[in-house]
Design brief:
With 345 residues, the protein is α+β, with helices and mostly antiparallel strands. The chain has helices at 3-23, 27-38, 43-50, 56-96, 114-128, 142-145, 188-196, 237-251, 296-301, 318-326, 339-342; strands spanning 132-133, 139-141, 180-182, 201-210, 222-232, 258-264, 269-278, 286-294, 310-317. 42% of the residues lie in helices and 18% in strands. A hairpin with a 7-residue loop joins strand 7 and strand 8. It binds 3,4-dihydroxyphenylalanine. 3,4-dihydroxyphenylalanine binds next to strand 8 and strand 9.
């Protein structure tokens, strides 16, 4: 075989591969080229197999030549492969119309429940007026829920339809301090707090309460109250009125809120009152709280000497205030876990 021929063969192969690579439009084609020319059974290997047949003195030269051509072509194919991949991604992005400058999809974050929001606002307002926020337990004893608050044994509030009693394994417990129930109001904290703290004192007690009743748009078996208690020397209903005026004004963001006290009955206060507010002149009165002057028997049960101090107490419905504030007509929405409702706050 003529030597020039062999050199020429290498040149031709090199040229063919270079041309083919430059024309390749995709990675599949590029791989076909790699296999066809540089693969195990490819044309370059065919040439290597011809090496033993050429004159001895030219073997080394042509052997090196074949090696360096193989290296060059492999590099060429690798470079082209990177180019094609980049082009592929670029075209794909173009075709699918991804706009990398577009803002990302926002993740929806959770937020506080409307009742929690309202509760925190109420706490802030009372704290700014010198009240401390204290919490009681939702599982309460008969004694603190009723006896210590002068609610007699035959008071209708104790009856089965109002109170969720907790079954005690040692049945028929007679001691009212051990007889457990779900608190029906936040008032028991008045007694518990006064047992441990001396006047003067100002507290509010926000929390969940339970009543065994049929539910409707304004009644739930669970709801929330905020108890208030202020005890000291010369505390009167005038103080309560001033505090309520300030509180409701700030809570409803009004310049003025009209307040009306009507007589009411609650065993733990004397006199007892019902508190109404009017948010706009001409609108109707809304009942928002029960209140009164702490009953001497409640002071006595807490270990205070009746007559040595006075105080007022009040209980407001957190759900009710939230309904008025947000204009919600059904209390059950607060407990429905319905995102369509909750997302609005
Ligand atoms: N505990 C009463 C209830 O659940 C509300 C209440 C009324 C609380 C008068 C008071 C009060 O502190 O003085 O209906």
């Amino acid at each position: 075989m003529a030597v020039e021929n062999f050199d020429e063969k290498i040149n031709i192969l090199e040229k063919k591969v270079k041309e083919a690579v430059s024309r390749a439009l995709d990675l599949v084609r590029l791989d076909e080229i790699r296999v066809k020319y540089l693969g195990r059974k490819g044309e370059l290997n065919d040439l290597i197999k011809e090496l033993p047949g050429i004159p001895e003195e030219l073997k080394a030269h042509n052997g090196r030549r074949l090696n360096s051509v193989r290296n060059d072509l492999e590099n060429l194919i690798n470079k082209k492969s990177v180019e094609l991949k980049d082009k592929f991604v670029e075209e794909k992005l173009k075709k699918e119309g991804i706009d990398v400058t577009m803002p990302g999809r926002s993740v929806s974050l959770g937020h506080l429940h409307p009742l929690t929001k309202v509760e925190r606002r109420i706490e802030d307002i009372f704290q700014s007026m010198g009240f401390s926020v204290v919490f009681g337990s939702e599982i309460e004893s008969e004694y603190y829920n009723f006896d210590a608050l002068n609610i007699s044994k035959d008071h209708p509030a104790r009856e089965m339809q109002d109170t969720f009693w907790i079954k005690n394994p040692k049945s028929e417990i007679q001691n009212p301090k051990q007889h457990l129930l779900l608190r029906t109001h936040t008032s028991p904290m008045q007694a518990r707090y006064m047992e441990k703290n001396n006047p003067p004192l100002r507290i509010i007690v926000p929390g969940r309460v339970y009543r065994h009743e049929a539910t409707d748009a304004s009644h739930e078996i669970q709801f929330h109250q905020i108890e208030g208690l202020m005890v000291g020397e010369d505390i009167s209903l005038a103080n309560l009125k001033a505090i309520f005026e300030e509180f409701f004004k700030r809570f409803f963001n009004k310049k003025k809120v009209e307040i009306r006290f009507r007589p009411g009955y609650f065993p733990f206060v004397e006199p007892g009152i019902e508190v109404d507010i009017k948010l706009e002149t001409g609108s109707k009165w809304l009942e928002v709280a029960g209140a009164g002057m702490v009953h001497p028997k409640v002071f006595k049960a807490a270990g205070y000497i009746p007559g040595k101090q006075q105080g007022f107490a009040f209980g407001v419905g957190l759900d009710r205030l939230s309904m008025i504030y947000y204009g919600i007509s059904d209390i059950r929405l607060f407990y429905s876990s319905d995102f369509r409702f909750l997302k609005q706050f």
